[in-house]
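Hi V.,

Quick status before I head out on leave. The structure for the redesign project is tokenized and pasted below; the design run finished overnight.
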């Protein structure tokens, strides 16, 4: 007997949900109710919002339908609340699903942000942006300007950026030295802290720390991008190196994201890359016997560059 009652109750709830959903859609979008909706809109803004709100209509129709069932067969307060809740939420979900499908069917196909072509079902969506192919997405990442407040965190630390995968290159220290010797256009920027730079750095390098060494440890340098933008043109071929190649990757990402177009990361850095056991994975500049300077060069130290950062004097 209890099973029969349960089945009957489930059927009543399903019928209530479908009726509430159907009536909600009819009142909101039916052709035969258009004149009624227009009349309500001219009389009361509050009632107009009620008639056009699937949430509100579903609730009140579920209450009305459940009240009819109470008059027919009676039910406990708990049953009444359960019928109203399921009928209301079920009717609203059905209407929301139908609205979504209707909107998708009538929507104008979006255009690729990069090339302007209409998008098909295979487009790439990144946040609120859409691209027709990976090539257009990568072109956008490579060319886009990024506001400064999106490059730095609250503490001045450089935030990781989604950048075009080939926006910066990787070279070994030996390859970096060869580039410096060949054309004379490349500039080596050592992004290590000032004490690290003073204890030895690649010959001819500029010191612009991405992090400073303080008593509490390493802290971000909030002026890193400012100093770089003042002293180097955005098309300057830059070689970015640190101690092991970790900080330089973060610096290279930030430089590319801020508009620099010829950025190269020096893998292994000055001291070499080591694994967790301390074994050398990749030899650095010093271990390869490449030219090294010590101390603070007059024109290439961070003190000199930072002191002139407001004057616009180039490197």
């Amino acid at each position: 007997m209890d099973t029969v009652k349960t089945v009957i109750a489930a059927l009543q709830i399903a019928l209530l949900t479908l009726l509430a959903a159907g009536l909600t859609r009819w009142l909101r979008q039916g052709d035969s109710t258009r004149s009624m909706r227009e009349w309500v809109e001219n009389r009361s803004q509050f009632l107009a919002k009620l008639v056009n709100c699937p949430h509100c209509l579903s609730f009140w129709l579920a209450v009305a339908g459940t009240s009819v069932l109470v008059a027919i067969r009676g039910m406990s307060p708990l049953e009444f609340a359960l019928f109203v809740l399921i009928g209301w939420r079920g009717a609203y979900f059905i209407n929301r699903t139908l609205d979504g499908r209707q909107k998708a069917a009538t929507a104008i196909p979006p255009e690729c942000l990069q090339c302007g072509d209409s998008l098909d079902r295979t487009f790439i969506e990144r946040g609120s942006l859409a691209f027709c192919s990976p090539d257009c997405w990568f072109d956008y990442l490579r060319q886009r300007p990024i506001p400064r407040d999106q490059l730095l965190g609250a503490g001045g630390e450089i935030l990781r950026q989604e950048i075009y995968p080939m926006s910066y290159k990787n070279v070994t220290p030996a390859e970096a030295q060869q580039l410096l010797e060949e054309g004379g256009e490349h500039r080596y920027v050592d992004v290590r802290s000032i004490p690290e730079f003073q204890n030895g750095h690649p010959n001819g390098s500029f010191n612009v720390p991405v992090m400073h060494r303080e008593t509490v440890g390493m802290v971000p340098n909030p002026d890193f991008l400012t100093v770089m933008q003042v002293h180097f043109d955005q098309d300057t071929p830059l070689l970015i190196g640190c101690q092991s190649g970790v900080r330089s990757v973060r610096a290279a990402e930030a430089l590319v994201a801020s508009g620099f177009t010829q950025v190269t990361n020096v893998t292994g850095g000055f001291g070499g890359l080591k694994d967790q056991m301390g074994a050398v994975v990749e030899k650095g500049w010093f271990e390869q016997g490449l030219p090294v300077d010590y101390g603070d060069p007059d024109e290439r130290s961070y003190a000199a560059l930072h002191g002139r950062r407001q004057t616009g004097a180039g490197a």
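Above is the designed sequence. The chain has eleven helices and 13 strands.

G. will cover questions while I'm gone.

Best,
W.
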